[in-house]
Fold these 4 entries.
Entry 1:
Amino acid sequence: MSLASSISTPPRAWGYLRPVGSDVEAIGLSGVVIAIGRTTRGYIEREDQASVQYVVLNGPAVSNIHSVIHWNGREGAASIVTLTDYSMNGTFVDGFKVGPRNVHHLYNGSIVCFGCKVPILGQTDFRYIFHHAFGRSKTESVLTHYELLDCVGSGAFGVVHRAIEKKSGKVFAIKTAFRTMTMMVLEHENICKLQEVFFRLDGEVVDIVLEYVDGVGLHRLGSFAGRLTEHHVREIAHQVCTAISYMHGKGVLHGDLKPNNILLTRAHPWTIKVIDFGLARVVGNINLQRVSAHIYTAPEAQLQQLRLENPPGALTHLWDSWGIGCILFNLHSFSHPFVRESERKDSNEDEGPFEVGIDYILWHLLDHLSTNARDLVRRLLAVDPHERMTVAAALHHPWLAGYEPYNVSFADVSFLPPSPASRIIPLEETVADSDTERDEMDVDVRQVPASKAKRRRRQAQPQGGQRRASTRVKKASRPDKTPGDERHVKAGPGALTRRSKRR
C-alpha cells in the first residue's frame, strides 16, 4: 500500500490536508512552499531550497514534482494559499483540473486530488480536504466589513475602489481581481501593503483590501512640470529600485512597471509606492498571453510571444530593469525613449513596445544630465537582456550608491490635475470583462500619442473591407539618421533578431 509521508515534521502547522479515504495519512503544512510528489528533489524555481517542505506521495499517477503549494506567510484575514500544477496526470481542485503551470486558490474546505480525478481500483486514493487555520470562508463578503466609495482606477486585471472600514472608519483601497496577485507575499515600505482578502465565485474572483495611498501617479508629472530636477528623479529612482530589488530577492518580478503603477505620496516624507501587481509572477512562471504590451514593455517580452516554442522562463527580472529605464528616461526628458519606425498593425500603433532592429532610442535627449545619470539609463535600456543591468546592481551604480533617500522635497513640483470623481461600480459589475473598463489612470499622459489626423484616418477606414491607401508622412520631429551618430542609435541585429519581418 502506498502511503503519503511528510519529509519535514511541521513545528507549527498553518494548515493540513486531511485524506478523504483511509489508506493515506494526513499531511501537515508548515512551510511557505510545499512541494508534493514522488521525490524530495527537483523543485528548482526557488534558490532557497531549505525553505521548501517536501511531501512524498508514492503512486503511479504522481509525478516527481506533482504540485507546489504556496502560502504567503500571513496569519489572519490576509492569509492566502495557492496551488501550482506541474504534473503529467493532473491536479484537481473541487473537481476542476488546474492545468500545467496554472495557479489555483485553495480555501478552507477545498478538495484536492493528486493524479486521477476518480480513484482507480487497487491504487491509492490521493484525495484530500484542505483545512486552513487562518483563511476566510469563500462565502464571507467584503461588503460586510467595508463600505465602497468612488472608483479610483480600473484596467485589464481589476477594478479599484476607495472604501471605509465600518469598524474603524479608516480608508482603504479595495481591488477586485480575477486571480491572486503575487504582491500578497511582499511587505516593504515602498510597496502597497495588503490588509485582507475576500473570495467570490468559488475563489475565481478576489476582493483584496489594500493600504490606501494618498498620492499621485508619476504619469501625472506633465510636460510642463515645474522644477523637476535630476535630484528629484534620483530620489524616485532609489526608492523604486529598492522596492523592485526586494521583489526580485523574493523571486518575484513585477512585469508591468510604468508611471501609472508608481505613486508618490503628497507630503513629507515623500514616499514612493509601487502598485498594481496584476502581472506580477514568480520568476520563470510567466503566462505570455497576459503580457501587457505597451511602450514600457521589454523588447524580449514581445519577441518571446512570437517564439512559442521557447519556454516562458526566458522572461526574467531583467524585464523590470527595462521598465525602470523607460520611466527614468521619461522623467528626465518628458519624452519616451524611442521613435516609431514602423507601421503598427493594431489601432494603438504609437503605444506598442520597442521593436528590435526597427525603433531608435533618442539618447540626445539626456545630454543635459550628469555622466552617471546618463550611464545608468543606458545600462537599464540595453536592448540585449544579457547586457542589461539588474535592478539590484543599479543600487550600486555611482549615481545611486550611498544615496540617502527621503531628504528631497517635491512641494514645488507641478502635477497634472486629477480626473473627475468616478462613479461607484457595483461589485457584480466588476466580474464582467474588465478589458472594457478604462479610465485616465490607464493612460500615460506623456507617452507619444497618435496624431489627430492619424486617428481620423483610422476611424474612416472601412470595417471588414479593404484598407484605404495612405501616404506615410515622415515625422518632422525625428532627427535625421546619420551612420555613427551617437545621439540616435539603432538597435541592430546583434542584440536580438525578429523571427518574422513585419510587412
Entry 2:
Amino acid sequence: MLNKKISEIFNNDSIQVEELLFDYETFEEPPLYNFYDDINSIRKIIKDKYLEEFLLNLAISHINTTKIYAKNILSEEEYNKFFICITYDPFEEIFYPSFMVTRKKYLFKDILNYPKLDLTKNLVIKNALENLGILNSVSVFESKWFDKYCHEELTRIYIVYNSDLDFN
C-alpha cells in the first residue's frame, strides 16, 4: 500500500528527474510533492512522528537518483556545474521538502556563508539524518532574512551533500 502511494506521488504530480536536469536560466525550486492530500494519504500509513524522516528519506533518494542520472546524461564539465540540495521552511505545518537545483552551481556559493544549523537544537533533523546514515555526509545550513512583504522573519534550511560544497 505504501509503495503504491509513493508511486502515485512520483508518477502523477511530483517533479521528475529529467526536469531537474533542465538548464534553467538561474535555478528552480520544485517541491518533492505538490499536494498535501498526497501526504495525508501517507499519514494513514506512517505515524506523524516518523513522517518527516520518511519524507526526508524520499528526498535524499530522489537526489541520489538525480545525481546518478546526471552523471550519465551530462558531460563532465556540465556535471561539475550541476548543483542540487534539499530546502525547506521549518515553520510550515508539515515538512515540505523542495529541491534547489541548477546547472549554474556558482549561484549557490553564498550558501557557505550561512551558519550551520545547530543540530543539538533540531533533534528531528539530526535523528533523521543519523537514521538514514548520512549525518556525516551532509551539512545543514540555515538562512534567515526579514521579508518586507509579509513583515516577518523567514527561515530556510538547506541540506547539502558535503561533496557538493566545492564551488571552485
Entry 3:
Amino acid sequence: MQPIIVIAASSGSLDPLKQIVSALPIPCPASVFIVRHVGPHQSVLPALLGVLTDLPVMHAEDGMLIESGHVYVAPPDRHMRLEMDRIRLDQGLLTLRPISHQQSAILRG
C-alpha cells in the first residue's frame, strides 16, 4: 500500500481542514482520508476542500480503488476503513468493532 494520511476531525474543524488540504504538495505521493463527525446530514465538504487544491477531492464510495494523490472524504454517517487497495464504508455506529491498540493511537493523535 502507498503512503496514507488519515485525518479524523470534529464538526467544528472546517478551517483546519482547509489549511491542511491547501498545504498538500502537488503531486502528493500519499492518499488522504478524512473522516469528519457530521452525523447523517448532507455534506459539501469535498466541494469546499476541492477549490483549495488541484488534487481530486471526493466522497469515498464502498469498494473504491485507493489512488495516491487523491483526497477521500467519508460520506455523512459512514465509517471508512481500508482493506488492501480498496475503501470500505460501514453504516454509523452499528457495525463498529472494538478499537484496536493501533486505531486507538491514531484517534489519540
Entry 4:
Amino acid sequence: MALPVPLAFSKFIVGLVALLAGSCVSCFLF
C-alpha cells in the first residue's frame, strides 16, 4: 500500500534539513 508523499510532509522534511544545515554552518563559522 504505497501512498504518494504529501506535499506538506515533503516541505516539512526540506525545512528540517535546511534547519539542520543552517545549524551546522553556524557551528562551523562560529
